[in-house]
């Protein structure tokens, strides 16, 4: 059965039955969303974080080294 066929059949249901269908679909989606790990930026948390020892001076020194090598 295709998605279009399911949609057509759903539209033929009574209003109460359609609300029940919507609720069942939402519950299903919520359960699925909680089971899957979140993707995206949350996986990258802390990637660009500098350690407390490195601080600003180390980042600045790295940038100076980069520029020096680039323009030699």
What's the quick description here?
With 72 residues, the chain is mostly helical. It contains three helices and no strands.
Can you give the mean pLDDT? Answer: 80
Span from first to last CA? 66 Å
- Topology as a string of helices (H) and strands (E): HHH
Structural class: mainly alpha
Q: Strand portion, in percent?
A: under 5%
The number of helical runs is: 3
Largest sheet: none
Report Rg.
27 Å
Contiguous uncertain segments of 5+ residues:
none
Give the overall shape. rod-shaped
Helix content: 55-70%
Total beta-strand segments:
0
How would you sum up this structure, described in words?
With 72 residues, the protein is mainly α. It has a domain at 1-37. 64% of the residues lie in helices and 0% in strands. The protein is built from three helices and no strands. It starts with a helix and ends with a helix.
Sum up the structure in keywords:
72 residues; rod-shaped; single chain; mainly alpha; 0% strand
